[in-house]
Write a structure and sequence with these properties.
The complex is a heterodimer of chains A (about 240) and B (about 160).
Chain A lengths: L10 H26 L7 H21 L3 H24 L12 H23 L1 H6 L10 H44 L5 H38 L6
Helix pairs in contact in A: 1-2, 1-3, 2-3, 2-7, 3-7, 4-6, 4-7, 6-7
Chain B lengths: L8 H136 L2 H18 L1
Classes of the chains: A mainly alpha (about 240), B mainly alpha (about 160).
């Protein structure tokens, strides 16, 4: 089947746009206060965003990427990545919302970016030779026929795992919700509804938690892979 | 549309485009000013801490110096007091010595004066006694002298004269 580029605006695309608008409005508002006086103590949205940014910087970027300059330059990407995934996750929890991250195309796209990034940064910062050397994983050269395919596969798998993990987590929660609601229709009685609603609310809160956790995991794993590919030779 | 595992290139394309826009907008209008401001603030705070530390050290040094100066001043004060006491003692002693000397002199003078007075009195007494003796003798002689005795005495004196010459 020849690949066909269907550029129709689906719900997922629309919700990505919502995410862009929402994030831009909030971040712009917060950033304005910084431009006015950077030394003032943060307030409101600014405070929340600052806590987020500092957390991403100290606990994700600096913690996983050994080169501080690279970490600093990647910080905007990591922060954007976290916010984008988080917003898409959260929008899916709104009534009538669609979770863009529960589509493998969306998570695949994000994982593709991470894949390009964690290989690209290593090539650009450390050189092609250093990057290619990584596929030996520190093993003697005669093991190359075994090691290199494994490592190449591992390198690709990381991105695939990123995509699947996020997609599966976001899809699973919704599937559970659908299934729970479906119970009412299946039994055709309102008697089960208290249990169903109770469980649904529980799952809903769980999903709220998962939305944050998955955004965090996607971001920190991307940073970690960048750090691993950048770093020394023997950390596999 | 097939199953949930199908990948639609169109959606992936849109995702990449949207994320690119998202990343661009947030980086340009959000993260960059925020990161800059954070760095600026962190730097300022670090500088302030450093400055405060330096000021603290300075204050500590000043305090130490002041303590030392205070101790020095106390010592000096003590010395001055001690010196003053010694001086006062010396002054008292010298004054006392002078008083003693003066007293001695006064006493000596008094003694001398008394001696003189005594001498004068004695002189006078002697004078008076002599006068008295003469007067008395004269009186007695006047009563006792008979012409006979006078003659005898005169005789004796006369007889003495040639011998004397």
């Amino acid at each position: 089947m020849p690949p066909r580029l269907d550029l129709s605006i689906t719900n997922y695309v629309a919700f990505q746009w919502f995410a862009i608008i929402a994030a831009f409005v909030v971040v712009r508002k917060a950033a304005k206060r910084y431009l006015k006086d950077p030394l003032k103590p943060p307030k409101g949205w600014q405070n929340a965003l600052e806590a987020l940014l500092v957390y991403i910087r100290d606990k994700i970027a600096y913690a996983t990427i050994p080169d501080k300059k690279v970490a600093d330059s990647l910080l905007p990407y990591l922060a954007s990545l976290f916010c984008f995934i988080l917003l898409l996750n959260l929008f899916g929890l709104l009534p009538g919302g669609h979770t863009a991250t529960s589509s493998l195309s969306v998570t695949g796209g994000m994982a593709l970016l991470s894949f390009i990034l964690y290989n690209g940064v290593a090539i650009v910062k450390r050189g092609f030779k250093h990057w290619a050397h990584h596929f030996l994983a520190g093993a003697p050269v005669f093991l190359a026929p075994i090691m290199v395919p494994i490592e190449i596969l591992g390198n690709i798998t990381r991105a695939v795992a990123l995509a699947i993990r996020l997609f599966a987590n976001m899809t699973a929660g919704h599937l559970v919700l659908y299934s729970l609601i479906g119970i009412i229709l299946f039994f055709e009685t309102v008697l089960v509804s208290p249990f169903v609603v109770g469980f649904s609310v529980f799952i809903y809160f769980l999903e709220l938690l998962v939305a944050f956790i998955q955004a965090y995991i996607f971001t920190i794993l991307t940073a970690l892979f960048i750090g691993l590919n950048l770093g020394g030779e023997h950390e596999h | 549309m097939g199953g949930i595992l199908d990948i639609s290139p169109g959606l992936m394309f849109w995702t990449l485009v949207n994320f690119a826009i998202f990343f661009y907008l947030l980086s340009k209008f959000g993260w960059k000013p925020m990161i800059n401001a954070l760095q600026q603030r962190e730097q300022t705070i670090n500088e302030m801490i450093l400055r405060a530390e330096r000021a603290h050290q300075e204050a500590q040094k000043l305090l130490e110096e002041n303590k030392k100066k205070l101790a020095e001043a106390r010592q000096q004060m003590m010395e001055i007091i001690r010196k003053g006491e010694a001086q006062a003692q010396a002054m008292i002693e010298s004054a006392m010595a002078e008083a003693e000397k003066l007293k001695q002199k006064k006493v000596e003078e008094a003694v001398r004066q008394i001696e003189q007075e005594k001498k004068a009195a004695l002189q006078e007494l002697r004078q008076q006694a002599a006068d008295l003796v003469v007067t008395t003798t004269e009186k007695i002689l006047r009563d006792v002298m008979t012409p006979e005795i006078r003659k005898k005495v005169t005789q004796a004196v006369v007889e003495e004269i040639p011998k004397a010459n």
